Amino acid sequence: MRIPFIAGNWKMFKTVHEAVVFVKELRSAVKDVADVEIVVAPPFTAVHAVAEAARNSNIGVAAQDLYWEREGAFTGEVSAAMIKEAGAEYVIVGHSERRRLFGDTDAIVNRKTSAAIGAGLTPIVCIGETLEERERNETLAILDRQIKDGLDGLGAPQLADIVVAYEPVWAIGTGRTATAAQAGEAHAHIRKRLRQWFGADAADRCHLLYGGSVKPDNIAELVAEADVDGALVGGASLDVKSFTEIVVRSRRAAV
Questions:
Q1: How far is residue 229's CA from residue 250's CA, in Å, rounded to a whole number?
Q2: Taking the chain (255 residues) in consecutive chunks of 10 residues, what is each chunk's mean pLDDT?
Q3: Of 35, 64, 169, 233, which shows the fewest CB atoms inside 10 Å?
Q4: Active-site residue (options: 37, 97, 129, 167)
């Protein structure tokens, strides 16, 4: 049985000090929550400090991106091994902002995903369509391409251990959220494709998250959908109170 998975993507917010203060408050607020996987993704500069602050707690730590090479002359980049050493267990790959602003293609997402798995990190692989693609009724075709190309070369055991986040680009930071029905339809389609391409067991173990203007007041309705296993939370994850509420309200509204 997949338990809810709630990850907070802080993007380019929080200094090291602010990040540590947040995690100390969060670990106290969620210390008794045993039935939700909780992850925070601070900027690279705070990964190590946050991992130390979260040590021996029920809070996991993710980096927000990585580079696929192990080492080399790649100024400004951070490798999977560096992230792992800093204390992260997860890494976000292919976020729509990386795709849209920094040119990450499906092929790049694939290389980053493979590098993460190779270093013992769990990738949170993001997929999703733009508003224009949705209006052209291309959503499911876009998802098929991103899944097929982004996860190319992975086997069933690897898929079972990764996280896939569906985040419609038109809902990221806009205040617009896919309805529960829209999210449910997309997630059901993703699960169907994963079953076809990786087998039922792996597909049913893989967590599928929804991302896009998730808030305390819509999380329960979203996770009530059969194939929505949790959320990749943006702005609402920057405040301890709202993030805690999302965690608590996600506690298997689907059961």
A1: 9
A2: 94 98 98 97 98 98 98 98 98 96 97 98 97 92 98 97 94 80 96 98 97 94 96 97 97 59
A3: 35
A4: 167
Domains of the chain: which residue ranges? Answer: 5-249
Q: Which is nearest to 171 in space by CA: 236, 229, 106, 93?
A: 236
CA distance 115 to 68: 5
Nearest to 99 by CA among 138, 128, 75, 121: 128
Q: Which residue has the tokens 């607020």?
A: 29
Is residue 167 part of the annotated active site? The answer reads: yes
Question: Catalytic one among 37, 95, 97, 207?
Answer: 95
* Active-site annotation holds for 187: no
5-249 sits in which CATH class?
alpha beta
Name beta bridge partners: 61.
Answer: 40
Residue 13 phi, psi (nearest 5): -130, 155
What 8-state DSSP symbol labels residue 180? H
